Amino acid sequence: MSTYDLIVIGAGPGGYVCAIRAAQLGLKVACVEGRETLGGTCLNVGCIPSKALLHASHMLHETHENFAKMGLMAGHVEIDWQKMQGYKSETVAGNTKGIEFLFKKNKIDWLKGWAVIETPGKVRVGETTHEAKNIVIATGSVPSALKGVTVDNDAGIVVDSTGALALPKIPESMVVIGAGVIGLELGSVYARLGAQVTVIEYLDAITPGMDGEVQKQFQRILTKQGLKFILGAAVSEVEVEDGRAEVEYELRKDGSKHEIKADVVLVATGRRPYADGLGLDALGVQMTDRGYIKVDGHWATSVPGIYAIGDAVPGPMLAHKAEDEGMAVAEVIAGKHGHVNYGLIPGVIYTMPEVASVGLTEEAAKEGGRKIKVGKFPFMGNARAKAVMQAEGFVKMIADAETDRILGCHIIGPNAGEMIHEVCVAMEFGAAAQDLALTCHAHPTTSEAVREAALACGDGAIHV
Ligand code: FAD
Questions:
Q1: Is this model's pTM higher than 0.95 or not?
Q2: Catalytic sites, residue numbers
Q3: Per the database record, which ranges form the FAD/NAD(P)-binding domain (predicted)?
């Protein structure tokens, strides 16, 4: 039996970041992980493999769409699916091994196996019980089930995101249930690789919660790229017959029933927090009615000495939110001050174009009764975006009508996921739109569009 200052359960972005920061602060740390590799959902079956496939399929799309326009006569580009899968797996392995290296460098013990919390201060892994002054639960989330639908990733016909990242072959047709981030990213991958992709969404708009104008433009662009959308539709059943799936759905507006057949159905209707098997019931750890672990402002659960972070606790299910909480809770446990600004967590969709947002949407600002001004700038007016043939989309900045303070920013366009950060930093410092408008931006960059949107909050953008 070993004794630690801290045992972290789960080595996803929340858990491994927490372990590293705690070790850097001088604590004796162990991290329990039941998977074969470190990095959690994000590195193994989430952010990283999906971005590898998005990148590879985007390259293919470029050869079809833009190469000839630039005088690059590539001819017919063949897809070797096994090699593409290999590239994805190597990308994953490079990243997960990187965490193993960081654990060794920071003298963090990786306790391999599934953890059970016996009592506060005691964590059992396999036959061995380890002692710890503090425990952080970072056990993440898993895909949520949909009534009437049985997922079987091994069969590769009705799959969740994990199955969709490793299909045995590229399907000719795919139905994606759920028009959220994961469904649209993976739907885009297969559409670019040649599948006929139909997205069925219960609500009347894609990417719920996102700025309304961005939603509409995003749907238009994806439709142009070949994705089909059936909105306002409730899937009631998916049946598998002769190696194909049949999806039954009902249109909410008139109750009419329809069917659609596909080689593969991807169920992407969200994720649920995961804390199964930890023994939290017996310990009396309080949960929310939606199955998240309840925590206070310092990520402490209802049981002293036990903390929780990441997807297992309320808030956006995002890797960087989990990482920030991991760092902050380590600081708290080490007797310092940990802080996460939940109002400033960016959200990015890594399609092409990318979609990125931070802070309030126009709708949320108005619902909250705020007087706002909106500065918009289209990428059609941005020289760099035109030069790289990615001039669809816009930057939309929301600022307080009286103080000019930036309240939110929504970008659909090239590099949106990178560009959003200058707005995050500006907002973190309480900047006004005028502050960004007066900041010199290098030319030609797509970031100039952010400045132009800030200018549009004042006396007007230049290039429109
Ligand atoms: P996880 O990463 O889920 O890690 C939890 C770990 O705990 C797992 O490895 C699990 O095996 C382990 N564990 C659970 N129970 C036990 C136990 N009892 N004992 C030992 N180990 C245990 N987010 C982004 O920000 N950007 C993206 O681009 C993005 N893309 C995504 C794409 C897909 C397809 C998916 C599915 C998710 C994506 N996400 C993305 C979400 C992101 O992966 C999660 O928000 C993030 O991984 C949450 O981190 P976490 O540390 O809370 O938990």
A1: yes
A2: 443
A3: 4-326
